[in-house]
């Protein structure tokens, strides 16, 4: 029988190598607040009252957040100019109730105090963040950027960062730059069901030592949990330096992790780190989930992006270079655990190291780290060198798309893990897929167009409705089940969180000249549009609808605009003491 699945189960010792001359982890001040030198702190006085779309800030009645201004109010509430770094917003709850469009204006929540509240994004998006900076200075540049800065004792959940574009080119004496898709410094907190769709790029040209760290969701995570989160997009960090020690670290989920747990997470990022020029040392690292992890557990997670790449071009004769690439994490230290993780990145490269290193599932493991029930993927690349034990067999892409691979992942799920699901012609996923179906319209167009669109469980479906010129006086009625959706000013619609297949119905689109089938009286109208009967009485009246056999179909007393859904056919509508014939068609 043909062997369907070839797996390498990575047991303790298989990838946990004590590599000579490998850099030891040396994170500093992980529990300390991060200073935002460029942040403009909001002025706050005791007389200031937070303004939101509603709510009182309690768990039962959270503050409702719908605009950038509301986010600025949270930033103001979590600011403190005393320098004591107090925990702000503790016990206060915030809930997002609409998509928020940014542009270049992104407030930093927790820039001079710890944000310690609960923020529920409610599945709505923070979208269209577009920042381009070309910076030149003869001094040292310090810069940090994310929606949430310093977070401690907080809960961040159901937040969607969509179309976040950040591109900075820096020419300065040296550079210390931290960038993240959602939060810079996550301490003693929970991040649950959050996603980021990012394009993050930092390029530094410096004359002295510089440091760049980028995380798809977070930079620095301590004593925290990241659960059921996903990151996607392109992340690029590069330094061209003339001296000193230079660090470039890029990660799909979090760059540095200590005493924490990452579980049920997926990185779908293209990660690239580069170091060039003349320098004493270059350390360039890319990790599909994390770069450095100490006393931490990475469970039931995967990286499946387009590529992971590190490259160093150090022209200094005695300069040292380290280019490390790993599908899950480049360094594990302490009492760590990697359990039920896998990577299917088709291209992993590491070029320019003065000491040999070939890309791997895990780069280096130290101390008491355990790796189990985890799987690697590699095609068209050299086999790895020996590190205590020989191994060179990996799964193929086709193997990882089979039910047998999904079954293997689900055989020994860690505590708190979500079962993997098979998707047709795709790699395993954690969330179910549902369909949202849009109708074919006359006189209008939706984006996306008519037909079914696949949506992950728990996401909101978004679409735009544009009326043709001859129909632009219509008042569309958009419904999902028994709920009517209201658009924003640009005719964008957002559904509730999708938990099952849904069908969107759109009615009320009629030509500007087609105002009615028959006018009843001055000020009253009866007309059909989009297969729906509309009755607009001048005054309260009895309305009855009969089919062509004379049988009553509907009967009611109405006092205002009324819509009646009827099957296709011809009907007689009697309003008051007058009768009229209408035709219902699609």
Which helices and strands, and how do they pair?
Blueprint: E1 63-65, H1 68-77, E2 87-88, E3 93-96, E4 100-103, E5 114-115, E6 118-120, E7 125-136, E8 140-145, E9 148-152, E10 155-157, E11 160-172, E12 174-180, E13 183-187, E14 190-192, E15 195-206, E16 211-215, E17 218-222, E18 225-227, E19 230-241, E20 245-251, E21 254-258, E22 261-263, E23 266-277, E24 281-287, E25 290-294, E26 297-299, E27 302-303, E28 307-314, E29 320-333, E30 337-339, E31 342-343, E32 347-351, E33 360-365, E34 370-372, H2 403-411, E35 433-438, E36 444-447, E37 451-456, E38 460-467, E39 477-480, E40 483-485, E41 492-497, E42 502-507, E43 518-521, E44 524-529, E45 532-536, E46 541-547, E47 552-558, E48 562-565, E49 569-575, E50 578-584
Parallel strand pairs: 1-3, 2-5, 3-6, 4-7, 6-10, 7-11, 8-12, 9-13, 10-14, 11-15, 12-16, 13-17, 14-18, 15-19, 16-20, 17-21, 18-22, 19-23, 20-24, 21-25, 22-26, 23-27, 23-28, 24-29, 25-29, 26-30, 27-31, 28-32, 29-33, 30-34, 35-42
Antiparallel strand pairs: 35-37, 36-38, 38-41, 39-40, 39-42, 43-44, 44-45, 45-48, 46-47, 46-49, 49-50
């Amino acid at each position: 029988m043909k062997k369907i699945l070839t797996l390498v189960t990575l047991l303790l010792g298989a990838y946990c190598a004590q590599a000579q001359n490998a850099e030891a982890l040396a994170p500093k001040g992980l529990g300390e607040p991060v200073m935002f030198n460029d942040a403009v702190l909001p002025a706050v006085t005791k007389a200031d009252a937070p303004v939101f779309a509603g709510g009182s800030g309690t768990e039962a009645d959270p503050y409702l957040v719908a605009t950038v201004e509301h986010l600025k109010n949270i930033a103001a509430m979590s600011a403190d100019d005393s320098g004591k770094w107090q925990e702000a917003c503790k016990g206060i709850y915030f809930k997002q109730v609409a998509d928020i469009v940014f542009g270049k204006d992104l407030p930093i929540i927790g820039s001079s105090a710890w944000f310690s509240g609960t923020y529920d994004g409610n599945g709505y998006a923070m979208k269209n963040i577009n920042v381009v900076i070309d910076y030149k200075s003869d001094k040292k540049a310090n810069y940090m950027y994310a929606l949430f800065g310093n977070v401690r004792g907080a809960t961040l959940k159901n937040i969607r960062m969509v179309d976040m574009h950040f591109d900075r080119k820096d020419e300065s004496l040296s550079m210390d730059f931290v960038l993240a898709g959602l939060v810079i410094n996550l301490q003693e907190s929970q991040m649950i069901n959050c996603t980021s769709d990012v394009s993050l790029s930092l390029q530094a040209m410096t004359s002295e030592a510089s440091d760049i760290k980028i995380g798809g969701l977070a930079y620095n995570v301590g004593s925290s949990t990241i659960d059921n989160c996903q990151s996607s997009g392109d992340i690029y960090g590069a330094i061209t330096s003339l001296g000193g020690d230079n660090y470039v670290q890029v990660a799909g989920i979090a760059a540095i992790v200590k005493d924490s747990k990452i579980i049920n997470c997926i990185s779908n990022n293209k990660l690239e780190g580069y170091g060039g020029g003349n320098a004493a040392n270059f350390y360039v690292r890319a990790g599909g989930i994390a770069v450095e992890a100490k006393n931490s557990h990475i469970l039931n997670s995967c990286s499946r992006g387009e590529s992971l790449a590190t490259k160093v071009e150090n022209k200094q004769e005695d300069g040292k270079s380290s280019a490390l690439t790993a599908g899950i994490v480049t360094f594990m230290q302490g009492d760590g655990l990697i359990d039920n993780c896998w990577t299917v990145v088709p291209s992993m490269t590491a070029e320019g190291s003065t000491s040999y290193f070939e890309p791997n599932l895990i780069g280096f493991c130290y101390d008491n780290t355990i790796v189990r029930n985890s799987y690697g993927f590699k095609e068209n690349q050299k086999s790895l060198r020996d590190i205590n034990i020989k191994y060179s067999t990996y799964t193929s892409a086709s193997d990882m798309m089979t039910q047998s691979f999904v079954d293997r992942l689900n055989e020994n799920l860690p505590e708190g893990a979500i079962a993997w699901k098979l998707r047709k012609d795709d790699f395993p996923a954690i969330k179910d897929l549902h369909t949202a179906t849009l109708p074919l319209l006359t006189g209008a167009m939706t984006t996306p167009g008519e037909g079914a669109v696949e949506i992950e469980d728990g996401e909101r479906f978004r679409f735009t409705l544009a009326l043709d010129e001859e129909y632009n006086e219509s008042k569309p009625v958009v419904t999902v089940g028994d709920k009517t959706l209201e658009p924003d000013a640009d005719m964008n619609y957002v559904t509730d969180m999708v938990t099952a297949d849904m069908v969107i119905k759109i009615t009320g689109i009629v030509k500007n000249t087609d105002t009615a089938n028959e006018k009843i009286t001055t000020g009253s109208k009866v007309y059909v549009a989009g297969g729906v009967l509309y009755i607009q009485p001048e005054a309260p009246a009895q309305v009855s609808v009969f089919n062509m056999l004379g049988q009553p179909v509907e009967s009611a007393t109405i006092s205002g605009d009324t819509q009646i859904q009827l099957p296709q056919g011809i009907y007689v509508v009697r309003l008051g003491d007058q009768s009229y014939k209408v035709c219902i068609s699609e």
